[in-house]
């Protein structure tokens, strides 16, 4: 065997090694590609299961809503989550319902809700909002469905507590009003309203009065009015840098 023979043999071994290496890479690639549909399918199944669990959740059924002397006074309860038309800009409705949301303030408010909401109450979306000013009223936000000419629409009923111990009262907040910087209502000497995510405080301006700024708590603000009786001020939404936040489209 001469040197030429060994050179030729060496070249053949190198080529064979390269072919085996390439085939191994291709087989690994084919195995991964073949598994991708299964991985995607498993992820899709997991997402679908999660969505089903959320949408199929049983509604919170506190006795203040369900135990009534007259069955007609029991409002329908809906377990489905609050729609994205509201949760997309109100983070308070995206966060899980807490024990505080189901506390005494909320239960007292729910005694005054009855069968007058035939579309149903989304009880898992109920939230309570308590403000830093201990003398200020608290808010209990109750998403409910209302039948309209074009179908069903979810709105917010806002129960306003009375710090003096009186019953309080309810105002209705439409989707359109929640997307604009306005006052939603008043209670005693206080005015209140809502603000979208990203608004940290609001500026309230009354005629012939110096404007005041108040913080936003869980997408809501509460302020002592500068006039008596309380007139509704002009509202300006502000972010953490003090810049104006425009109304939502």
- C-alpha geometry: globular
Give the helix level as a range of percent.
Answer: 25-40%
- Secondary-structure-derived class: alpha+beta
Tally of structural domains? 2
Query: How many individual helices?
Result: 5
Report the major sheet: 4 strands, antiparallel
Number of strands: 11
How much beta, percentage-wise? 15-25%
Residue stretches low in confidence (pLDDT < 50, at least 5 long) are 16-55
Radius of gyration: 30 Å
Mean pLDDT: 80
**String of helices and strands:** HHHHEEEEHEEEEEEE
Widest sheet, order of strands: 1-2-3-4
How far apart are the first and last residues' alpha carbons, in Å? 86 Å
Features of this protein?
249 residues; alpha+beta; 2 domains; four-stranded antiparallel beta sheet; 11 strands; 29% helix; globular
Protein model, in words:
The chain has five helices and eleven strands. The protein has 249 residues and is an alpha+beta fold. The strands form three sheets. Strands 1-2-3-4 form a four-stranded antiparallel sheet. The protein has a four-stranded antiparallel sheet with strand order 8-7-10-11, with no helix packed on it. Strands 5-6-9 form a three-stranded antiparallel sheet, with no helix packed on it. 27% of the residues are buried. Mean pLDDT is 80; it is low at 16-55.
């Amino acid at each position: 065997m001469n040197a030429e023979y060994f050179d030729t043999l060496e070249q053949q071994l190198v080529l064979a090694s390269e072919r085996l290496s390439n085939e191994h890479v291709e087989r690994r690639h084919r195995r991964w590609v073949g598994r991708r549909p299964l991985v995607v399918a498993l992820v899709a199944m997991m997402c679908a299961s999660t969505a089903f669990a959320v949408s199929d959740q049983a509604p919170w059924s506190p006795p203040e809503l369900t135990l009534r002397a007259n069955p007609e006074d029991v409002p329908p309860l809906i377990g489905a989550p609050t729609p994205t038309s509201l949760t997309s800009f109100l983070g308070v409705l995206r966060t899980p319902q807490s024990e505080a949301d189901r506390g005494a303030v909320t239960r007292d408010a729910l005694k005054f809700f009855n069968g007058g909401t035939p579309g149903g109450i989304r009880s898992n979306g109920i939230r309570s909002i308590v403000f830093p000013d201990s003398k200020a009223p608290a808010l209990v936000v109750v998403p409910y469905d209302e039948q309209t000419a074009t179908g069903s629409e979810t709105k917010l009923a806002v129960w306003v507590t009375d710090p003096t111990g009186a019953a309080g009262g309810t105002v209705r907040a439409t989707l359109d009003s929640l997307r604009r910087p306005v006052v939603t209502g008043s209670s005693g000497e206080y005015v209140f309203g809502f603000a979208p995510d990203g608004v940290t405080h609001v500026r309230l301006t009354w005629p012939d009065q110096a404007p005041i700024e108040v913080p936003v708590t869980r997408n809501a603000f509460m302020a002592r009015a500068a006039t008596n009786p309380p007139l509704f001020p002009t509202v300006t939404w502000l972010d953490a840098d003090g810049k104006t936040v425009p109304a939502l489209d």
